[in-house]
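Continuing from the previous page...

OK, I double-checked the sequence for Cation:proton antiporter against my notes and this is the correct one:
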Amino acid sequence: MDIVLITTVIASLFIVIGLAEPLAERLRLPYSVILAVIGILIGMGAIFFLRTDLTDALNPVAEAILGLPIRSNVFLYVFLPTLLFQATLGMNLRRMLDDWVPILVLAVVAVVVATLSVGYALFWASALPLAACLLIGSIVSTTDPSAVVSIFRSISAPRRLARIIEGESLLNDAAAIALFGLFMGFVMLGVPDPKLGDAIAQFPVLIVGGALSGWFAARVALWIMGNIGRHELAQLSISVALPYLAYIGSEQLVGASGVVAVVAAGLTLNLVGPGRLQPQAWANLRELWDILAHWAGALIFILAALLIPRLLEEVRLGDFALVGVVILAAIAARVVILFGLLPLLTALRLSPPVERPYRVAILWGGLRGAVTLALALAVTESFRVPDGIQRVVGILATGFTLFTLIAQGTTLRWIIGRLGLDRLSPIDDALSRQVVAVALQTVREDVSRTTENYELSHDIVRSEAKRFGERLDDAVRTAEDNADILDRDRITLGLIALAGHERDTILARMRERTISARMAEQVLSDAERLIEGARSDGRSGYNRAARQSLSYGRAFRLSNLLHTWLSLSAPLARITADRFELLLSQRLVLRDLGTFIDGRIRRIHGRRVAVLLHELLTRRIDAVETALEGLRLQYPGYAEELERRFIRRTALRLEEREYATMREDGLIGAEVYTKLMEDLVARRSAVDDRPQLDIALQRIELLRQFPLFSTLDTPDLKRLSRVLRTRNVDAGDIFLRKDGIAKSVYFIASGAVEIETAGQSWRLGRGDMFGQLAILMKKARKTEVRAIAPTTVLELGEDRFRRLLRRNPALKDTVRESAEKRGIASEDVFAEIDAA
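Thanks. Re-ran it with the corrected sequence; updated structure tokens here:
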């Protein structure tokens, strides 16, 4: 075929892609629906011109269109990895990890329920073998993630709900394609009635094998990209190769799911990449994949739609009834998930509550598209699948896809309007009017300064000022008419605005490189958690999210157990260093929020709200300072190294800005500027390396600061540091409960605890110890110990404590003093101390 003609057709398709987006916006239809309709029309037009006798002039073009190398392997090996990989890079993975339970449950269960529902419904309504029916069920279980995401953006759905549905849609495709490969194997082997137990047993192998393959491929790619940090284009090239090699390697070498491997590779790169790549390189990488996925998604829709007329050429009257069975069974399966499983997950507190209108929108917005058609095409192309099954699979999958695109896609906005999801809530509507009034006041001041600077004609200025003033008066009057917002709602809206500005500040700091990309991702996740907490529960939700951002997570506790039990210190050192940098980044951002409260929020919501937000902000800053001080006490000197690193990065940013200004002003030429920037990049690379945190060394230095151990020499300190176990608790946690058997003594490394016994309480801080008297008195504890700040203690077992007590006179004196202070000094206690 003429290569020039094929190139012309493909270039023309890109023109169609460029014009389809504004057309979809004008017609208020989903972009995928417009692409599918255009593809169908092009395919029908090509067939018409080839078969008509009206003219032969367009036959070469029609032959080129129908002769395009559109095969299932093109979709599965070229387009699909691109779409899945970009979708994983665009996810806020840290926030999705908070909801991994509902995402995985919905993804896996939704696919299995849809596959079984459609499969058994077809088996009862047709003469097809069960394996072929289940194959069709797996094909139509795939959804279009881009359509789902665009739906939720258009209806301003809650962010957490949108994340769950987005993650479910992505993993839904991976699970469905894994099932497709499983049942496709049964059909090609001629197994008419596969054992469901065997199929389910093989399903986890496909998933786990694919996940491990993708993770390994991503780690290798990250290692290579990290070693070529100065060559950004090379890094981008490796990222382009990653999803394809992960897909092919998993399918051909491991025998697992290639789709799952691509998803795992993308998730790994999303989680680890920001900490390994330069901020600008990571931003460019994501932009590159956005463009590639946009082109791939559009092309896969158009090219798949071109096949629809050919797939429907052999349609029969009875096939329409089977298409209706597929439609009803698929909708019924979705109803079970949305109105049965989702409420159950909500009742179990594993998923946020999803209001009924949103569930209806999700139900009707479950569009199918190119992935469904590509899988159907793979069946029709396989010579190992019987001809009758090929025909039915192609027709049913195509018919169901057309129904979702035409019937559901074209009526989706109408459904959303009828559900009232396209309208602002009363609070948001009132807020928008307040914002317009404040914005116009600011604009009037700026316009006034502009007219004075340019000395414009007084008559023109006067007439325009009058016109603008009338609009401002109307806006203020409208805002005052809607000033019946409750103070509670104003506080909520103020907190949402404050958290939103916090997110914008983080992005600005990230662009300036004063906050590393790795920490920016974490702090951004915390800011979004603040927004969602304020939206759902107001002030209490905001405070809960703020406390959660400072709490020790599961990873910290796990790394602490590894350090304690297996002496693996690297994970604990890395997470502790991350916490240091996170707290410093949070403090840096929080200090900038006061001006925003006094400026914007006070003008919109008033003085009372501004004062309350200042109080909440002050508490957050104090909590961050307290947590940071606890780490400083535990690891002296490390926080200072991080602060020096921040100052150096700030200086480099200012230096880079000065060079750019001189270049723009013509003070230095391109050669000088290039040389200066190369030197600056080298110095920045050295500054970006975070100092190492040596847990073992820091513990020895910490022990030296305890007066009890000041007389021990270095070998004794090293031996003691190895037997001491570290425990970390959050503020408010109960450390030791009453009536427990004393087995250890605890030394406070950082933080503070409150001890309560017999109606009395006192507090101990860094350098103090507790638990020693309960051991010496050989009685059950009658005290309760509670952390009043994030606290780290060093735990020493009873036998080792007694041996240390015998060799350390200073420790004996300290134990005596504590017994006298608590009023339990007696001859028995002193004798026990001396005997030890």
